[in-house]
Amino acid sequence: MSGTVHLEMVEPGIARVVIDQPARLNAISQAMWDRLGAIFAELDRDDGLRCVLLTGRGERAFSVGADITEFEAIRSTVEKAKAYAKRTHAALSALRALRHPVVAAIEGLCVGGGLELACNADLRICGQSARFGIPIKRLGLVVAYGELAPLVQLVGKAHALRILLEGDLVGAEEALRIGLVNRVVGDGAVMEEALATARRIAEGAPLVARWHKKFVNRLMDPRPLTAEEEEESYLCFGTEDFREGTRAFLEKRKPVFLGR
User: What is the DSSP letter of 28?
Assistant: First the structure.
């Protein structure tokens, strides 16, 4: 049975994207990359969404990345590899561009393209047995610039080069130390903690969460901010959610945000 990617609505405002090929440690086929890109684009259009969970089926792996059994057919030449990269990069770009916050729930192996996916999420929560790496020095291929940038932004030059050049796997505690993950929890508690995190995000003003994600990502770009971008910082004061939030604070009640 070939793998697939599922989109599930966990509860109002929270969606879950599941990479589902546990027999192959959630390896991602070309068709699954296409499916991921389509799902992320679909979720981006959903105004009612507050947070997205990204995970793999089962406890053995979040994902081990590209399905190597396809390499002869789709990555065996420079031209084939470039065509394949357009499709994988489209999925990663769609995840990066997704305006809603994304929390990656990571159990087991998170390597290669699986780690690239996780690095494009906004928060990463893993179990104690999780392991991370990009051991492609043994395959004779490189990580392209667009795939590599999120990893370098997370952990910096020294740690990124260590991961790539040594090619070994990093454990959960070291991943936490170098900034690759935000939180380590006990094995078996990963999805519970990820869902609790999603609920904390979802209870806030959704427009604010989207703006903060956009602003932080923009600050990773060294270009000076434009006047229009600076102006966007103040648009929140014209929203219904701002008025609701301030009223709720003064009235000592929980706010009800509508995303307007």
Answer: B
108 with 229, same domain: the answer is: no
In the chain, the number of structural domains is: 2
Pairing of strands 109-111, 170-171: unpaired
pLDDT tens per residue, range 36-50: 999 999 999 999 999
Q: What is the pLDDT of residue 201?
A: 97
Task: Examine residue 255 and state whether it is found in any structural domain, yes or no.
Answer: no
Same domain for 96 and 62, yes or no, is yes
Give the pair of three-digit tokens for residue 170: 């990093």
Q: Helices (DSSP H) in 62-138: which residue ranges?
A: 71-74, 78-97, 113-119
Q: What is the pLDDT of residue 141?
A: 87
What is the CATH classification number for the domain harbouring 12?
Answer: 3.90.226.10
Given a cut of 50, the residues of the chain with pLDDT beneath it are none
Do residue 44 and residue 114 come from a single domain?
Answer: yes
The whole-number pLDDT of residue 83 equals 87
Phi, psi of 66 (to 5 degrees): -55, 145
The pLDDT of residue 80: 87
Threshold 0.90, pTM exceeds: yes
CA-derived radius of gyration, the chain: 19
What is the DSSP annotation of 141-171? ----HHHHHHHHHHHHHHHHHHHHHH--PEE
User: Is 124 a member of any domain?
Assistant: yes
Which among 46, 50, 52 is positioned nearest to 96, based on CA atoms? Answer: 52
pLDDT given at position 69: 83
Q: Are strands 14-20 and 51-56 parallel, antiparallel or unpaired?
A: parallel
Domain coverage including residue 71: 4-202
Say yes or no: 33 and 101 in one domain.
yes
- Position 257 scores a pLDDT of 92
